[in-house]
Amino acid sequence: MAAGVANASQRGSVHTPAVTPGSPNLAVELGARAAVVCCGSGGVGKTTVSAALAMGIVAEYDKRVMVLTIDPARRLAAALGLHAVGPDPISVPAARLRRAGLRPRGELVAAMLDQKSTWDRMVERHAPTRQAAERILANRFYQGISTAFNGSQEYAAMEALYELHSGGEYDCVVVDTPPSRSALDFLEAPDRVNDFVGGRLLSWLAGPSRLGWRAVNLAATPFLRMADRLLGADVLRELGEFVRDLQGLYDGVQQRSRRVKSLLRSADTAFAVVTTLEPLPFAEAEFFCQRLREEAMPLGAVVVNRLLPGDLLDGRAADAAGFLVEHPRAGAAWLSEAAGERVTADTSRRLGAAFLTLHQLAVRDDRQVARLTHFGSLPLARLPLADREVVDIEGLATLTAVLRGNSA
Amino acid sequence: MLDELLSRRVLFVTGKGGTGKTTLSAALALLAARRGRRVLCIEVDAKGALPACLGSPPVPFEPRVVQPNISCLALHPEASLQEYLRLYFHVPRFTRMTPLAGVFDFVANSVPGIKDMLIVGKVAYEEKRMSSTPRSGARPQWDIIIVDSQASGHVLPQLNAARAMLGLVRGGIIRSQVEWIDACLADSRRTLLTICALPEEMPVAEALELHDRARAETRVTVGACFLNRTLRTALTPRQVRVLRQAAAPEHAEAAREHLGGELGPMVEGIQLAQRLAEASQAQARRLRAGLSCPVLEIPVQARARPGLATTRLIASALTAG
């Protein structure tokens, strides 16, 4: 009908997807590396993407692949065979992958980050003596630090990545990163821990080791005087000893940090930035990509999750929907005939409007995704929004197919 | 239900990260202010998100007016430590904070309970604060204090901080302060905890867990749960069915001629939207079934950027619901 067609341009039937279709195979691109770091804000689906990506890599390469998850949902963890946090990685049986439709060429192993034991190992590795290590591990302040300190989980994830990578057991390590408001927390973790362990700021709290607390001029430090009253002298002394022991770790930790940062920069590593189109995570992702580019760090791919299905961009459907809205009686008449039951004008309008709302959202989303192409020819995967969460291997396999460039 | 919440002295707003608690805290502040209350908003993690939702740049530790009847402050760590020491220990303000700034993070995180006490201590201090004007005489500085708390895992120790300190401290000035704070939190006529959730598997699970733990482990009452970004379906199953039938391939030619377009792609998209709405409603039912407090639903505002306009939308949605 002429009227319907005449309004086509207003409804965007001339819209063409801003990013050229022809989806890349991220499993091939990223699986060539030894370390893949999945970054992004909390809640964008990093854990799911990490697992699906690792499955894809195992399907493309004859490699031993480890996926290190951070805080997986119970059912997702169970899907991978992870039932409890612990140091032991679990092999994901090839039969399970085959049942989900994959043909694994390599071997997949999964693990959950054990933050506490990663920190413990770090202390044991760098402490000057066995006794110093034991003192730290037994210290009650250490418990708070290794779990609550801002950045401690990020640092543990990096440590774990480095350990796994240098351990030689795996050809490719895919690392999930902790959920945080800022994806940069992960990059800044080594410096934060350095500063903290470095203890220059804390040295006055440590006090001169030969003379002990009482010799420190308390009159010059009202904070200490107050703390003394509030917490008791024992606490302060323990705190001081703890800080002195920590300072013993400094050289080792600093060297380790340098090596970790070096790994993150190398050609062996790729960063995969995961995001949705929600304003905050998306802004974080853009910022993060920008930062990686500025620091010449290996940005390998972008994964946009929870996208509206491509169908919704269809201009011819938008035309039909527009007609149903603008000519509801004619629309209703035609629908009644085609459907074989009576349809009201109101229904015609509602059906059309429902689709057009989704269509406009899809067009806007597509333009938003296009902003990510500013970072050059970066492989970009689009994962669809689904009505149920991914809680099993089959669900992961669906995402794996998309990440490998097959349409969902 | 809203009137119930807004008639309290202190509201803690918590929830898993990403569930919209900052925007919700700001919306509650707007609603309280419109009812003529003098509102203080406290941003616990000092990132500037809460003032931004109220149309303001980041705020300092001193309360700053951001909207009519609404003041906002952020708990900057060094500043809050300084004030805490000054108020409770009469330690004068330090002029050179630099070494202390570095130490604070360490001390606050390693000595159990200190950070939590600072937060709760500040809330309690503001609740007790009086102002005096020629017209109204002495009265509380604020009618209501809304605390945009940290993500769920952290709020419980805060609510318990006072009780934990009671266990550690024998007497003196600290004990009486702490007893008062604990009593304030436990009085449900003065203080309520509200939980934010999304209609998705994990956020609902966390909200339920937080609710149960708050009841079991603290003396603070859970007043309500805000379910954000709910989806409702605009179409009846019959309407969707009609579309599916009309979109059958045998009608495609006729559709092109009469409607000027194709119905096929419409079907997939609309069916997905229906399934999403159903999933959202199923999660809402699961949430209601597990809570002892009312659940207020706030429909999704498509990709709305955080800011005053969005906060106003949420406030309207709250009053409409």
Describe the structure.
The complex is a heterodimer of chains A (408) and B (321). Chain A has helices at 2-6, 8-11, 26-31, 46-60, 74-80, 94-99, 115-126, 130-138, 140-148, 152-167, 184-198, 203-206, 222-231, 233-265, 279-294, 315-326, 328-339, 345-370, 393-403, and strands at 35-39, 64-69, 90-92, 107-112, 172-176, 269-275, 299-307, 380-384. Chain A is α/β, with parallel strands linked by helices and 408 residues long. Chain A is elongated, with a radius of gyration of 27 Å. Chain A starts with a helix and ends in a 5-residue tail after the last helix. The model of chain A is unreliable at 1-20 and 208-220 (pLDDT under 50). In chain B, 45% of the residues are buried. The longest helix of chain B is centred in the last third of the chain and has 27 residues, at 264-290. In chain B, helix 4 crosses helix 6 (114-128) and helix 7 packs parallel to helix 9. Chain B has helices at residues 2-6, 21-34, 49-53, 77-89, 98-110, 114-128, 152-168, 172-186, 201-217, 237-246, 252-259, 264-290, 308-320, and strands spanning 10-15, 39-43, 64-67, 70-74, 130-133, 137-140, 144-148, 191-197, 222-230, 295-299. In chain B, the strands form 2 sheets. Chain B has an 8-stranded mixed beta sheet with strand order 3-4-2-7-1-8-9-10, sandwiched between helices. With 321 residues, chain B is an alpha/beta fold. Chains A and B meet through helix 1, helix 9, helix 13, helix 14 and helix 16 of A and helix 5, helix 10, helix 11 and helix 12 of B.
